Amino acid sequence: MKTICIDARLWGISHTGIGRYVENLIDFLPEDPKVRVVLIVSPADVNEPKLAGFKKFVAGYHPYTLMSQLEMLKLWFQIRPELFHATHSSIPVLWPGRMVVTFHDLIRHLSHGRDSTTKNYSFYKIKYIGYLLVDRIALIRAKKILVPAEFWANEIIHRFGISRSKIQVTYEGVDRHIKITGHGKSFGMPKPFVVYTGNLYPHKNIPVLLNAIRLLNGRVSLALVGARSAFTEKAKEMISRLGVSRQVHLLGKLTDEELSQLYAKASAFVFPSLIEGFGLTGLEAMAVGLPVIAANASCLPEIYGHAAVYFDPANPVDLSQKIIRLVSDRRLNKLFRMKGLEKVKSYSWSEMAEKTWQIYLQELP
To answer: Which of 59, 61, 193, 346 sits at a 20 to 30 Å CA gap from 305?
Structure first.
C-alpha cells in the first residue's frame, strides 16, 4: 500500500482561507483501498473529531519557523510517504521526497514593503527574503503545482518561467457556513449600507472604498467586518481624516450567524481587493443572495464572471457610482442577486478534492 502525506498543520477556519482549503480537501477526499492517507497536524488538532479517521503525526512548530524545517525532516524519516502534499507554498525545504505544492496566490510577491507590515522593518525584510527563497524552491521541487485560478497559473508562468504542463488549476468551493436567513439584523448600521468582510492589509485596497463612501455624502453607509489588527488603527485614522465616522462602522469579528443576519439587511457586498487567491468571501456573499461589487483586478473577474458588478480599483469615483446604482436600482440589485446564486453552483469542494486526488494518483511513483 502506498502512502500519501498531507500537510494539515494549518487545518481549520482559524487559519482563514488556507485552513478552509485544507479542511475541505480532507473532508472530501475519496477512499481508495490501495492508498493510505496520513496527516501532519498541529498539537491543537490531534483530537479533532473530523480527522479521527486518519493516522496523524504531530508537528509542534509553526510552519513558518526555522525549527519546523528540521522537525519536518524528522517526520519524513518516520513516515517515508511516496508523495507529500504541501498545502501552502512554505514547503519543508529539507523534505527529500516527491511532493505536490499548492500556491494559493503570489500576494507576498505583489504586495510588499514598509506599508505591508507593522513589525520591525529589518526583521520583516529578512523574513520576506526567506519567503521568496522558499517559494522558488517550492516551484522547482514540486512535481505538480496546484493553483485556485488560471490567473495564478499565468502569473507563475510569467514570473518564474514554469512550464504550463506542471501547473494544475483546482478551483475551490463555497462554504455554506453563512446561511440565508429571514431574520436580519443591522447591528446599528444606518440603511442603506454595504458590507466588506476581511482583513485590512494594504492589498485589500480599503482607502479606495473609504473614499468612495466619502463621495456618497451619507447616502450609503459601510460595515467593515473582520478581526481587529494593527491595520485597524490605520483604518480608524483614515476614517477620521476623511470625516466618514458616521457612515463607516467597524463591527469587528462576527460569528457566522451574526454575519448571516447582517448580510440579510445589507444592500451589497463590496470587494475592493487588488489581489486575491480565489475571492472566497465574495462567493460566500453570493451564496446567501447578496449582490457583489468587485474590483476588476487579479482573479476576481475569472472567478465571479458576469455575476458581479466591477469597478476600476484605482478609482473611488467609479466605485461610488457603482455602489449607488446597485443600492438604488431594485431591478438591478435583484438581477445580481440571482446571478450570484447561480454562479456559486459552479464551484464545488468535492470536485476540487476529486481533481486533487487524481493528481495524487498520477504523481505516485
So the answer is: 193
